[in-house]
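Re: weekly structure request thread

Next one in the queue (406 aa):
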Amino acid sequence: MGRVLTIVLLGMAVDNALLLWKARVHMAQGYFDFANFYTAGKLVRRGQSAELYDSGAQWRVQQEFFSQVNIRRAPMRYLRPPFEALFFSVFAAWPYPTALLVFTVLTLALLAAIPFIVVRGRRWQEGFPLGLTPILIVGTFPAFMDLIMGQDAALLALLFALCFWQLETGRDVWAGATLGLALFKFQLALPFFFVLWIAGRKRVVAGFLLSASILCAISTVIVGWRGVLKYPGYLLALSHAKGVGISPEIQITLRGLLTFLGKRVSDSRSSDWMLAAVAVGAIVYTGLLWRRAGESFLAEGFGLGAIIAIVTSYYASDYDLLVLIVPLLAMRTRPGAADARRADSLTRYLETSGLLLLLLTPLYWFTRLQLHAECLMTIPLLAVGVALARRLRDARAGRLIAGDTE
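Done, posted below.
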């Protein structure tokens, strides 16, 4: 990473910290996403788990704790699977401001731990100490949004980091079990699991299914079989509800990008099926490409798999891009081999320009506030994905060796 980019990220980290400090009152009043996690936790603690997805029960809790939020005329809906509500019930033991503070500190700790998990056993190749990396991560827009919204993307990124480390050390069963714990965002965990499976990491299946079974059992205990079976319909209804559903244009996905460009994919079942076919094709292609490139290209395959999981997902927000920290860090721990053929200029251009755009915080603000179309950030994400695919293709053809990531 260049010195200029390092300085820019440090400056943005300071700026993000100041913005978080200025927003602390609204955060403590329940204006952001952590309020719906807290609501779910409260319902579990009060023995009202069966009403976890009941709008009336959610609204009563939110009126009790977030009555100062004057922009809300309906409940902020809890969308995660039942088992994650059990996790948030721990935080619901405290008053909301305290719970948010504890959760924010935990988020910062998770972000700080990720670089050390990924780089463990590797040689750090950058000109600055590894200990500075967590601060640089806070300087990225996805980390800022995760912190201000009180989202759980840092937990997702940590699980992906642990999964990467376990794959690298040959503990595929444990990698699968760890990835299974990420099913609270099943729209990202499932595609990535299938990429791993197709890539030849078959032992991840046992671990993944074990975790999934345990989490399903926990969910059944929390909301009952009927609640578990109704959950998919609950999500589907919300996705099509006017004024309640999430607009595709603010999602960093292919579906969101096509919607913004005029293809009303959200209003057409045939288009949804077409996008599903594209997703399946992309997952299969990525898995096969990774498999043929070999295990030496774990970072590139992991990164491409994560990108495919994001862009083909029905829902993926800016903070979900935190999972890309894992392959990015991994690729910065390998020295370029003196006798290796370097990637072609197009690959390097796509990779460099895409990553720079993804790290450019003002661009996120522009697409978010001026255009109301964060889906445009899908374009640089796709550029990086194409670059990684080209690297894996060249590796398969013997034109590139592991370590040529400069």
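The radius of gyration is 21 Å. Residues 256 and 262 are 10 Å apart (CA to CA).
Next request, please.
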